[in-house]
Task: structure prediction
Amino acid sequence: MTTAPPTLAAATGGTDLLLWVAVPYVCLAVFVVGHVWRYRQDQFGWTTHTSQLLEHRWLRWGSPLFHLGAFMVIAGHVVGLAVPASWTEAVGISEHTYHTTAVWAGSVAGVTMVAGLGMLCARRLLTRSIRLGTDRSDKLLFPLLSATVLLGITATAAHNVFGGGYDYRPTVSVWFRGVFTLRPEPEAITGAPLLFQLHALTACLLFAAWPFTRLVHVWSAPIGYLVRPYLVYRRRATTARPTARLGTSAAERRA
Amino acid sequence: MRVMAQIAMVMSLDKCIGCHTCSVTCKQTWTNRTGVEYAWFNNVETKPGVGYPRRYEDQEHWKGGWMLDKRGRLVLRSGGRLKRLLSLFSNPDLPSIEDYYEPVTYDYDNLVSAPAGKDIPVARPRSVLTGKPTAITWGANWEDGLGGAPEHAGGDPNLTGAWAQKVKFEFEQTFLFHLPRLCEHCLNPACVSACPSGAMYKRVEDGIVLVDQDRCRGWRMCVTACPYKKVYVNHATGKAEKCTFCFPRIEAGQPTVCSETCVGRLRYLGLLLYDADRVGEAAATPDEHDLLDAQRGVFLDPHDPEVITAARESGIPEDWLDAARRSPVYDLVMRYKVALTLHPEYRTQPMVWYVPPLSPVLDAVDVAGGNRDDPDHVFAAVTRLRIPLEYLAELFTAGDTDVVAGVLMKLTALRSYMRERTLGEPGDETALKAVGLTARQAEDLHRLLAVAKYQDRYVVPAAHKEDAAALTAMENRCPVESSVPAEPRKVMLGIPTLRRRTTGDHG
Result:
């Protein structure tokens, strides 16, 4: 699956293949397998790991800012990376309109997220009880997430807000889509500015780390709560999965 | 009719001496772990007092329990489903650790390892959360026996209205009683209804409300929704924990740890059969003063042949039906109607019931120069001395003083009648008649309240053999730990370190 066509190897150097083909696929594989493993092995550890009990003054602003900013940033990345430029042009959005909207909306989203994340990092560092409760996965997650977010917003600021403007859609976006369509195009991103490249690489690492951190709570967003009945009754015999499993095996032994 | 059984508790508050044995044994059993140092599944409060966590009864502030909206529908006070999801990022109504208290340990090591010197070494308190020396300024029973009450007890949310001024004014002639509290294992649990992940549930077989530790995702909405603040966040695991009603013991036919170790023998455990289909309707009763009767209306008479047939259809086994007929809880709640719930106006239909204390009224009789052995004096006091009565009514009947007065008069008549009988007199049944008791009933109630033995106080049927396979799967592990089978596993990233050093020598 991950083996590139021969022409690809000829056109790009070994380092580029490693960085823009091997690393993304390895990270994605860790992302998928890691989630399956964690979900099966560690339901008990699958939590937001809330620390609001210990500190709420910073969290009250930092957490909503971070999460809302993150939603906007993710939406922006979906539009910018997954949607080809030809599609937006086909519906009559000119490159200039797209670029202006993207820079403005992206800046608002990015600043919101950075501000929120900054506050969350600050309370984690400054509140002693939370700092002591920070486990190894947090010590990996917070720097990695901060690096990714900061590189992303710096790239946008340096090139598109204050710089001459860099259109990532024919380059970074093409590489990104190539990874998912199983037709990797590493040469598409090799010419991109360093900040964009670093941002893409830290993002890959973030995805690899995802299943082993508290980020897994994203997949437990409780949307089903909107429609379920208020009262939940459960029978004792089915209170926990291992219990049910052992119950079955006991029944099988009897049979 | 959908018959379900619930194991419920009654506490006779006159017998509580506030020794905290229930709290301590509960803590040693369930919450002596990192992350829940501050949590007391069972605690004993002195009333009047602000309670634990501070002012938890102030639902205007904490938004616990249910209420009726403008159209008379039953809604969670903390808001609807969408509002709850929108407050996932930051829950505006979550108590902070300061509202409970900062848990501490002591430098015990210093007592033996301090170098020789002029002064006797002391064990200084250290915060368990930060490892730093700290000053202890609050605790779960800070106001024990009204300690510090002149400073704090005025903050008791039950002290509202004009009569409350009088309580504060006459504090030197004060009254107090102890109130042991644990999870109410409600029929209409607000915590379960507020849980976004559906991790909390009420067990069909015995009504115990539990948190599935594997499904809890740490959204902490249960803490807000519970008006009794009896769900806690474990800050080490990031999951909710609560009183389990000692289900492993209950399943084995044993009383809960708090009941087992109760020095005053004031706790009763027994079954109540109820109609699950009527719970919602009863909880939505418009007038708060009718909530007590509405909840009693949900319970079913275990002697009624129709109920027995329906219970069999629901799969309730025969020995459970037999236990329901012998239930001391049914007698106190339904037959003699001397047990009341704590704050019925929260509309959760709690299943831990209280026989209100007569002692504050008797104290008041003494203060007024009356004879506490004369039922006429006490009857007069019950109706005339508004302070304790209004206060008890705020706690147990949503402010309806008539109901509390009725129960207290019943207890007074019972005392006076049984005193006469014990002294060899025939016993004057006039007072009994006035409160609707026959001589035989009085003797039965007296036996239940005063002399009941272990097997009369705790009628707990064991869980059923059909479930034995499921139960053996549970017995070799701690129910609040991971339910992953006992095979050895490596601790990987993301799994919280469950032990934190609290000796204070870390950086």
About this structure: Chain A is about 65% helix and 0% strand. The CA atoms of residues 4 and 10 of chain A lie 10 Å apart. The longest strand of chain A covers residues 233-234.
